[in-house]
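Attaching the record inline, Q. Sequence:
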Amino acid sequence: MKMEIQFLYSEDCPSHEEALSRLQQVLKEEGINAEISIGKVETEEQAMRLRFAGSPTILIDGHDIVPLANPHYNLTCRAYRLEDGRISPLPSTMMIRRAVRAAKDMQRQDE
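Structure, as predicted:
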């Protein structure tokens, strides 16, 4: 099972290091040995081309871990609505885990 994971961030948003750490931990706990493609987004052009909805953005097999109804791709910090309704600059570990498990399930269905 090969999972394509992109981790996109902007240097101006300080939460990206913790988000990457959470992603790595979830992958380890789920037993997924996937390479993470890490990309620093520095221009509005890059943001549009990479479907960067703000820093940090995590894409698994091309899908955002928290899809937005009306995404705006630009060079900005991102806000996530946590399970308890609070707003955070980081996705929760559970958000990441759900997305990883959903990607695993999709790959199994495609086999």
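The chain has a mean pLDDT of 93. The CA atoms of residues 80 and 88 lie 5 Å apart.

More tomorrow.
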